[in-house]
Amino acid sequence: MATNAPADQNPTAAGTEAPKPKTEKELAREALKKEKQAKFEAKKAKLEAEKAAKGATKEKKEKKPKAVAEPVPEYVEETPKGEKKILKSLDDPAFKSYNPAVVESAWYDWWEKEGFFEPEFTADGQVKPEGVFMVPAPPPNVTGALHIGHALTIAIQDTLIRWNRMLGKTVLFLPGFDHAGISTQSVVEKMLWKKEGKTRHDLGRPKFTGLVWDWKQEYHDRIKNQLKRMGASYDWTREAFTMDEKLSKAVLEAFVRLHDEGIIYRANRLVNWCCQLNTTLSNLEVDNIEIPGRTLLSVPGYKEKVEFGIIVSFAYEMEGSDEKVIVATTRPETMLGDTAIAVHPDDERYKHLIGKFAKHPFVDRRLPIVADDYVEKDFGTGCVKITPAHDPNDFAIGERHNLDFINILNDDGTFNETCGEKFAGMKRFEARKVVIEELTKLGLYVETKDNPMSVPLCNKSKDVIEPKMKPQWWVKQKAMAGAAMKAVKDGEIKIRPAVSEREFFTWLEKIQDWCISRQLWWGHQAPAYYVHLGEEEHDAPGNDDKMWVVAHTKELAEEKAREKFPGQKFTLAQDPDVLDTWFSSGLFPFSTLGWPDKTPDMASFYPNSLLETGWDILFFWVARMIMLGIKMTGSIPFNEVFCHSLVRDSEGRKMSKSLGNVVDPLDIINGASLESLHAKLMLGNLDPSEVGRATTYQKTAFPDGIPQCGSDALHFALCHYTTGGRDINMDIKVVDGYRKFCNKMYQATKFAMMRLEDGFVPKPTSKVTGQESLVEKWILHKLNKAAQNTNQALEERNFLVATDEIYRYWLYEFCDVYIENSKPLILEGTPEQKRSAQDTLYTALEGALLLIHPFMPFVTEELWQRLPRRPEDKTRTVCKASYPTFVEEFNDPQAEKDYDLVFAIVKAARSLTVEYSIKDKAEVFVHSKDAETAKTVSEQKASITALVKGLEKLESVSDVSAIPEGCTVNVVSEKCSVYLLVKGRVDVDSEIAKTQKKIAKTTDSRKRLEKAMAVGDYKTKVKAEVQEADKQRLKDFAAEEKTLEELVAKFETLRA
Predict the structure, then answer these.
(1) Nearest CA among 367, 347, 348 for reference residue 357
(2) How far apart are CA 594 and CA 248, in angstroms?
(3) Rounded to an integer, what distance in angstroms lies between the CA atom of residue 167 and that of residue 172?
(4) Which residues pair with 268 in a beta bridge?
(5) Are strands 366-371 and 340-343 parallel, antiparallel or unpaired?
(6) For the chain, the helix, strand and coil percentages under 3-state DSSP, each to the nearest 5
(7) Digit-coded pLDDT (tens) for 692-730
(8) Global pTM?
(9) Are strands 638-644 and 494-496 parallel, antiparallel or unpaired?
(10) How far is 884 from 790, CA to CA, in rounded Å?
């Protein structure tokens, strides 16, 4: 039965002892514990009640119908084309939030019409005293549309151009387009076949080239639109095309001069022949793929895959005996062109055969056995089949031994009549199988084995390249390469990064003569004429190399022919071949400026300042420009080469149309749905088999399509990606992140302009008055540092550092600190304080916009135009405004140090109030351990109070004993700690445990740093400034441990 009797009246059970009476202290502690428990239960009940109330409110709110936001009407640009943009109110629905389509409209047409991108000269037509900066744009091919790799090139170049323009220099950014002989003709031929089922031969040369000119115009306009949308600040009045009259004149002049000097010559030599494109290729246009062994490869024109990575052995019978010699080859079909068998002169096995003949099994041909040191005795059988007309090594042996050079291949990849009736007209890889079958029938086949090998592929058509004898025009390059290397070694030309310079030397040291003939119809037709003696007209040139004359025109060629063959009648036939595209491109730095004429542009802009391009065309283009530039003008073509990275997709793969990962920059600027990306695949020349693979990739990479990012975000992202590495793995999410950054800038500028108020007129200059508050001095110092570091980074072509500097200033210094921390001065300060803070806000904002303009041209123009101008400032566009540079009077390291301390205190106090959920009546104590810190805290007390929400009391103390019990702490440095009074507002036991965890973490950090500093070579390998920073970190860790331990001790007293 239960009882309510007091304990001392309650009888004990039999056999049990009465409880020991509690001491007075124990009773008091028990009472305190009960009181705390009661408070805890009351607080808990209160929280649950508040939670329930909130839930009920939420429920009610959820029941209310949601207000539907009115849709923002589609933006329609009202500015007439070419006029200055009509600036609407930022309260207009289209301008309330950042929209790249709205911000980027109209500006480019105005820039172009006003001539802002044209170079400025002095009154007498000379380069300005600030200097000259000229960049020739690597001319994009007129084969289609630009991809993201082109966007990277433009972002880097345009950034440097705009920066130098803002530095006041005479600046020229020269645009151009390349006719891209092989690529363009190939694309148009595919299109012609796809649409009409016709070849170029069905149309004839004049009509076909007319079709290509139409194609060129269409895609030229498309590319030009892309370039403008990306903000490229080209001087379009100087636009060049490699086949326009001015540049074609330079091509003729260069060819004639080099031929007259004997540098260009005619020779029947082995070339890289592409059967699919029916043209010669340079070594640089051939991709050598390595295969480990037997591999089946797809070859254009063959339904079945072709076997590579094997070596076939077969025997030749000796003439007049039963002996056989066994040879091996990776290309058995070429045995139809064999004209000898080579052995080493010291090989005892075959000495007796030297000078004798083997019999060809399929054609009436005797093959001499020749001795040559090229043969390795111990490799294979020691016998090597020689095919001089179809193998580079055999070609050299053929010349040494005066062998027959028998061409077995037609231009289309079929065998000709020299191969015998059975093989004539047969396709080369079909003949491969038949040769082995026939050898087997004759008992001459030996075996087939796996063989690692390199397969040469045309990098345009992916056809297997055939070495083939062709009479072509060649350029001697050894001497020109020597001059080019000397220019770089002597420092006349700087190549960056260093890895590209090393590759430049490696290639030029091994350079061979350059075949510049191409069997195409689209391009510069060689100004070479074959002289046919007699009166009979001939459509094609003959084969005698002595009968050629080279001249600018047919009339001049006739004069040369009369001089060469006086008194004889003749007719001329122009070489139908065109020149390698890279020949005309190699003249680009000076042909665009009017060479060979002595023009004002040649005088002002040659040598060019900078050649910026991808490292993958360092040899195709850059090396040839240097060689031809020095040879043709007597001067280097440019002072500097900067090779940027190659853009790959987010999976690290090279951009390829067949993979579907080629991204149109306009799709990033405008945004694109997944469906529209799929649709674009169907518009190109992709094989149906490749469309499926490309579609799959797009679904993986862009499941929701591509978000609208805008030109500025793309421009900034690509520059930030430029680290000097070889590759960039492009991720659209990164670009989208910078679009959000654009929005931050946009909103911050709107907010800052609201703080400036209507009618604000800035001071005539940014010169300081001496009355600036600490935060003003701090932001001006930060602007100064950002300007200094950005200019230095751009000078060094360090785009990562430049973008980081600007991003940090905008986001973490201007937006996060000054805009917020100047609020008390502007809203609550004296008239003098308010005006000073506004003037500094203007300087800091204008500086921010100018700093980032080269990287984000559109949004900066949009925002800068809305700022009031300083009196007497007549600058019409941000493009021509002065770029921020280091200003000595803004340099204030002490202000930086002091306000960094203030802001650290603010962050520490905010962190504590958030951590302990103290939203009002907060009491903070700042413990300063030296006089300098105490002085700064005392002077900035009002500023700190204004910046910490809910702060009711702030005290600066120099003695830790002045800090009341029941405080928690955040250690700022060894000289400063921030305390927050939490007594009565937190659970003490929980705070002790939390603080002990902080101690353990700090101790662990200190020990790890001590261990790192104790390493043997630490003092010799680690920079002095890093060692000093490590020493300071050790002091800070020690101070933090001590302060936290003292805090635990204070919390312990609260338990009593």
Answers:
(1) 367
(2) 11
(3) 13
(4) 471
(5) parallel
(6) 50, 15, 35
(7) 888 888 888 889 999 999 999 999 999 999 887 778 888
(8) 0.83
(9) parallel
(10) 9
